[in-house]
Amino acid sequence: MPAVYSIDLIAKRDKKLKMDRSIVKGWNVHYQTLKEAEEAARLKKQRQEEEMQAQDHSEDEEAEGGEPDQEAEEVFENSEAAFNRKTGSYSGHYGKRPVHDEREKKQIHAILEKPDAFSAAMSALNQQAE
């Protein structure tokens, strides 16, 4: 039968050292209460509804032929769905709307007009072979 020892100062010290060296620290763990979880879910649902209303509003204005107002544009740009965690910027909606700025249109056209490096190299090889 194994001996049962009471916790002494050495056992307490060893337990403290083990906790200090562990990856997950007990003091860093936050257990969310049910009330906090319900509040977070309610706020998330409310934000989603606001985004949907803003998108519907901007779609209605575009269908009427008018420009979307600046406030709806800011909501669209700064929504959580647009936030890219890898780059740390709001680029999630990049390329999903038409370009209205002439300077940007020229830049896009210049980029798309550049010859493909592979096709340029292949055509050079073909010319040398002939």
Task: Explain the overall architecture.
The protein has helices spanning 9-21, 34-64, 70-77, 102-113, 117-129, and strands at residues 83-84, 89-90. The protein is mainly alpha-helical and 130 residues long. It has a two-stranded antiparallel ribbon with strand order 1-2. A hairpin with a 4-residue loop joins strand 1 (83-84) and strand 2. The protein starts with 8 loop residues before the first helix and ends with a helix. The model has no long low-confidence stretch (mean pLDDT 76).
Q: Top keywords for this entry?
A:
about 130 residues; mainly alpha; single chain
Compact summary:
It is built from five helices and two strands. With 130 residues, the protein is mostly helical. The radius of gyration is 30 Å and the shape is flat.
Mean pLDDT: 76
The number of helical runs is: 5
Order of helices and strands: HHHEEHH
In spatial order, strands of the major sheet run 1-2
Q: What is the CA–CA distance across the termini?
A: 92 Å
Strand content: under 5%
Helix fraction, binned, reads 55-70%
Structural class assignment: mainly alpha
Largest sheet: 2 strands, antiparallel
Radius of gyration: 30 Å
Topology (elements, then pairings):
Elements: H1 9-21, H2 34-64, H3 70-77, E1 83-84, E2 89-90, H4 102-113, H5 117-129
Helix pairs in contact: 2-3
